[in-house]
Amino acid sequence: MNNSIEIILAMLMLSSLVVLMLEAIGPKSSTASFLEKPHIRLFTYVVIIASCIIIVFDLNSQKMLNRRPQLFYESFAAFALLINTFIAIYLGKRTRTFVHNGDSFFILLASLTIAIANIWTDYLVIKLITSSAWLLLMAALAVKTTSGGKKAEIGLKLTFSALILFLLLLFAIYFLSTASIKTELVNISLDNSEGILGILGVMFLALAGMSMAGIAPFSFAHIDCADGSSLSTAFLLLSNAMIQGSSFLIGAKSILERSGPSFAHYQETIAFILAAGLLITWLRALDQSKIKRTAVYVASSIGPLFCLSLLFGTSLLLPKLIFMVALFAFVTIALFVLFGSMAFMDPLYSPWQTWEDIAGLGRRNRMPALYFLIAFASIAGVPGTVGYFVKLSLIAPMRDSIIFNAFIFISIAMGSACTMRIFVFLFSKQSHTLVQAGPEQTPPLSLMVASLILMVLGFFPFVR
Amino acid sequence: MDIFANYILYTMIFSPLFAAAFITLIPTVDLSSKITLSRFFAFIGLFCFLCVLALFINNQLLSQYLISFKLFDFYVNFAINITKYNIFLFGAMSASLLANMILYELNDTKSNTHQVAPFILTFIIFITLGQKDLRVALPIISMSNFIMYFLIGYGQKLHRSSTIFHMGIFIFTCDALVLILLQYQEIDGPTSPSADALKAVAVIAGLARLGIPLCAPFISSLFDNVDEAEGPFLITYLQISGFAILVLIRSDLILVPSYLMALVAVITVLSAIYLALAAVFEQRPNILPYYSLTFYAAITASVIFLTDYNSFWHLSASLLLSNIACFLHCSKSSLLLSQYQHLFSLQPQIKATWFISLCLIAGVPGLGIGTALWSIISLSIFKNIASIDGLTGSAWFYWSMLWCLAMLILNYALILSHKRDIFKKTNNNATLIDYRLPANQLFYISPIIIELVTLIIPLATFYVSSRALT
User: Fold this and answer.
1) What is the complex's ipTM, to 2 decimals?
2) Does B164 contact A428 at a Cβ distance shorter than 8 Å?
């Protein structure tokens, strides 16, 4: 149990109620954007920053932090969830979508609270409730911040995804409790006599994690939802889903580790499934003609990569603590640059759909297009970017599995192809329709710094 | 003296970066100021290189220059190593930058990126050349390719998009594979199969940048789709980055494994024959210098891997520098052919200069590239050929014969190119007006300058090698 997270949970629950009251008594806005209701936005910012400060102070007081940072995974994950929510609100200012009602801030804070609770708890039953509830809340948020006819599709798909997740976790609880009579993750361990039931439980837990993280082929609802909803919602859904999904996978791995060497090869199975998911996502990203859908596929490819690196990645040059921080930072920064640059590329005057529509945009709207390309290249793992070293951190630990490493290499090759395709459209081709687009938009300094981090850190070979 | 060496070295490394900053600050349309500043900084760069070379010859350079700073709890070290293996590559880049600035004037206002790109690329290659570890050098070279793709993509050529698409995928994939195999080598050791695979793939990544057709399937498309004015510098940049990779690999190998020798020998000779044949069928004079550059780059790659450890660096440097000098001159000649093809009064001069340019790249002993080429052949190949017998001797003999055949075909292509009517007929009477001085007078004596340069290069490299050995 982590006291600081308990305090944060209490604070967030209280804040959610306050925000709900403020939203209830305030005038109904015509937009669901986070741009509206500045007092609520300010309040939310303050709560998130205060929570972040609590976590930082708590982590700073831990003596084991440098030696065994994995013990504090919950704190890191909670911190990342808070930062992602902060960024989502910030991005929301750029992505206004007109809908009829808005309890966005309440849903946002409630989903954040549930996500942190999901990370924090070790009880599988609570995880089952929180993870399903989080997906339903995200479905609600996506529906509220989406205009047009995609609402029904998004709501339906995410609800169905929540149902699948519920069932997967239910099976996991059933098999694990049958095998070891325990449902608390830290206490479950298997022995050989428990045979197939325990393994099934662990595998269902891992599959639930993949489903939660939106890793193909176990969930495409995340991609449809992120594609249909606003950029800020897409960012929030994908980033926080990955972090929560990884907690399930860490739980599954820790059970296998506790269970002895005879279960070690099941870890490789999990790694293999994740690598296959990475490959499938890139394969799908390659044949997309729509801009946002391609970007969402590319963004969702971070999920398996993040989980793989968190579970198996190593770096000889970086301390464990820094490596772990770097992984969380990579998820947040890469997604921020990807969706943030899209928000600034988004022309208010002539909306685009396909890559052909924005051919030559890099010549007119240079900086956002450049940041977008950097984010793409980094997620793809093009040599010379941070993403490449994140992928490289997996090679040494999994050196015995040629197929796994081949998957990583093929994912880089496909990522390069995807990056070059985007590059050609943005900087080489020319579109006649794009002439009508508005003036060049200047992205904020934060976006520039984030994209520089993605690129400059790639020149330091911190993974050997 | 140490402080002086420090200043000179850092000026050489960072002057392109300062140039880029200053050029950016000048308004895009003020081309004359940009040109002056570009030439000034390019000259400073070459001057600093000559000083560095002099310091190197007199053993007054440190083996490593380190810039170190602390960022939170991390020490970030930025090391520049000047060794006998890379010093001439620094020179090649500095000289290419200056030649580019003199030969190709900024004549449009495309974008600031176009104006500063040569300096940025030079800075990047300087940083890369100073590295001893492929893990550091390769990602930097890889990312710098984006600048090149941007320049090519900004042009008006029809198939530029597909060219950069194919080139990007191929080169990024090669680089990624090299870096992954480097991880395997780290674990398995330098004598493992993964280490052998690494060497082979790294060589292919290097040869791909040289444009060797068997390793770079995109190369003919690239030649067709680079801009006439920007192309020579970009291709030179690619060549130098390719040689940087090859030299980095070779400098770690005191004895080259036989499989690697065979791989390089087969790839280069087959590619040379392909290039020579392609040159025969090439109708456009402006593409011919690219074929010639790549042809001699293939020979240079062979020299790196087939000669001994003590001499490969200066022999290859001699050939590389001569090749780049002749290429830059010849590509400028070909550009003038197209620019002044309608000016009848200048046709004899232009045609004569073009003929001499072709002679410079024909490999005639003592003329242009031939000066370095034949001295290398006499120094390395003829010296060793008597000591080789048996199967290796036969392979060596057939390999040499194939090279001779390739050279013959290339020369045939050059003769054909000169015999073709390079000046297009026109019915427009306005173009018959006698126009006296469209070209710089210096251009007519430039073949003599290039001939002098190609005579000096082998002597200089030989002198440096003799000093380095003592």
Assistant:
1) 0.86
2) yes
